[in-house]
Amino acid sequence: MTRHASPPLEIRGAALRRGGRELWSGLDLTVEPGELIAVLGPSGSGKTTLLRAILGLEDLSEGTVEVDGKRVARAGNRGIGYLPQTRPLPRDTALRGRDLVALGVNGHRFGPPIPRRRDRERVDELIAAIGATDFADRPVGILSGGEQQRLRVGQALADDPRLLLCDEPLTSLDLANQQAVVGLIDRHRRSGAAVLLVTHDINPLLGKVDRILYIANGRFTLGAPKDVLTSEVLTDLYGAPVFVLEAGDRLVVVGAPDAEASHHHHEDHA
Amino acid sequence: MNWDDIANAMFGGVPVYGQILALVQNSVWAGAILGLVGGLIGVFVLQRDMAFAVHGISELSFAGAAAALLIGADVVTGSIVGSMVAAALIGWLGSRARDRNSIIGVLMPFGLGLGILFLALYNGRSANRFSLLTGQIVSVQSDQLTWLIAISAVVLVALLLIWRPLRFDSLDPQSAAARGVPTGLISLAFMLLLGLAVAVAVHIIGALLVLALLVTPAAAAARIAHGPVAVPLLAALFGVVSAVGGILLAVAGTLPVSPYITTISFVIYLVCRVVGDRRGRVERTDAAHRTQPVASVRA
Questions:
Q1: What average pLDDT score do residues B203-216 get?
Q2: Residue B2 burial (CB count, 10 A)
Q3: How many CB atoms lie within 10 A of CB B144?
Q4: Phi and psi angles of residue A18, each rounded to the nearest 5 degrees, phi first
Q5: For residue B183, with 0-12 CB atoms within 10 Å meaning exposed, 13-18 middle and 19 or more buried, which class applies?
Q6: Considering Cα of A259, then A265, then A266, then A270, what sign does the dihedral take?
Q7: How far is it, in rounded angstroms, from Cα A212 to Cα A197?
Q8: Do the chains contact at B46 and A94, CB–CB below 8 Å?
């Protein structure tokens, strides 16, 4: 991975406006290889849109995004691994676990769907890497949410991406599966990839995350977890009293207003 | 009607079956390739949750065919025009599933009403009238049959060429878009192919019964298989067996083809459902046994 001179992700002067409302502006973010950045903030603060803009699926209102030193120009990028926010697949989905992984390997390819040995070997590698050998041949519909999410990680890693974008990858997973999915993401980051991960709960990632991008109230704060997750910083960001409490080795954020309520304060604090 | 009449209607042609078969040979071919295409495209119809759209397209296809009959134009062309209009409207106005269903619900009765109006105005051979609604492949003229076979072949080839991106887009549209699959184009292409397949099916099985060849075989296959190769292959096989079997049984008597096709395809579905449910119970029990110990160790 040392052959790459440019950072996996570089965002400059980015702004996002939707429906006449400014969600954020002046965002500069450079993500280095091996770095894990968590994106936090209330719903409706444009976190998912940020990920989609990096993928070229949505346009920023201002600013530029470079992935691997190349300006994002077209929709979709196979150099980026993406875990979209999803619901579990319906029970009767005609798909086995390994087929979900295989979509990442050859799902984009036009032409007659003739099976290739190289594809099958890659799928087997990915399945082994995510520890899914036991359930890869079962229908995905009967697999648990955690098993499905691990398979999706396998799909996202198909091309060994230098940048991994995850949108709420831990939602509705139990603790063991949260740890398993975080472990897979962390391992890929250790191999030299950058990770940008949208989440509403930082706790499963504490100790792994390098920096936090906290978006709220039309503004954002970027920094190390201990510098961002404090009562002072979040109170300033939200423009309302917010408390960060320590409960054992967990953090609890109390009093953060939701996106709509905070909007009214926007003009006063922006 | 007594039993002799029924027996005659069903099996009256058996003594001269060989001669009948020679006459309907092209119909059998048309049925076979539509069964194949219908089974394959049905897999995507189910993945994209578009069974209702198939029905909506078929009613407008019927209206198009009826209009063609009225003005003396080619009926196959008419049904294709109707199909394309419906597919384009549904694709354009109903990208989201909920919008789509209401648009189809609005279009369908309008299409069916138009078709009935055109048929009422039409003075020609009355046998043509209801064949568009309930199908009568054996009365389709041979040059039209050639067209139906050619269109089905085009749909088959196009479907195979976009197979994997279409599958990705159907199962996981967000990831597909993120990996550069042109999802808008894929959806449009699929609607057009679906429209063509429906137009062909209207002539073979009738506008009201199109689902029996475009949905039932794939639904049956999905009950007993899960693999990316097994499901389409089984669906295609079920489609061919239903269409060809229906035609071969029907020409032994004087009854229409469609009830044979719909019955065969329904029976296949029933069998698959029973087999699938039985197997599903076993797998779920396995899964329960498998996950329990892991959970308790970690908890």
A1: 92
A2: 7
A3: 16
A4: -135, 130
A5: buried
A6: negative
A7: 9
A8: yes
Interatomic CA distance for residues A206 and A202, integer angstroms:
6
Decide if A19 touches B, using CB distance below 8 A.
Answer: no
**Closest Cα partner for B225 from A203, A104, A137?**
A137
Tell me which DSSP letter residue A77 carries.
Answer: -
Model confidence band, residue B298 (pLDDT cutoffs 50, 70, 90): very low
A92-109 tens-digit pLDDT: 788 899 999 999 999 999
Residues with Cβ < 8 Å from B98, sequence gap 6 or more?
A: none
- The structure's pTM equals 0.89
pLDDT in tens, B134-186: 887 777 888 889 999 999 999 999 999 999 999 999 999 999 999 999 999 99
pLDDT of residue A1: 47
Task: Give strand pairing partners of A243.
Answer: A254
Cβ neighbours of residue A40 under 8 Å, at least 6 residues apart? A47, A198, A199, A200, A202, A212, A213, A214, A215
Closest by Cβ to A78, choosing from B171, B180, B182: B180
Query: Could you give the 3-state DSSP secondary structure of residue A67?
Result: strand
Q: What are the angstrom distances between the C-alpha of A9 and each of A17, A23, A32, A34, A36?
A: 21, 21, 7, 12, 12
Q: How far apart are CA B172 and CA B182, in angstroms?
A: 13
CB atoms within 10 A of CB A121: 11
Rg (CA), chain B: 21
Chain-chain contact of B287 with A138 (C-beta, under 8 angstroms):
yes
Higher pLDDT, B285 or B3: B3
Identity of the residue in B165, B231, B283 whose CB atom sits nearest the CB atom of A107: B165
Tell me the mean pLDDT in the region A207-226. 91
Nearest chain A alpha carbon to B224? A94
B83, B59 Cβ separation under 8 angstroms: no
Tokens representing residue A206 in the block: 């504490």
Q: Which CATH class is domain B16-210?
A: mainly alpha
Asked whether A8 and A162 are in contact (CB, 8 A), the reply is yes
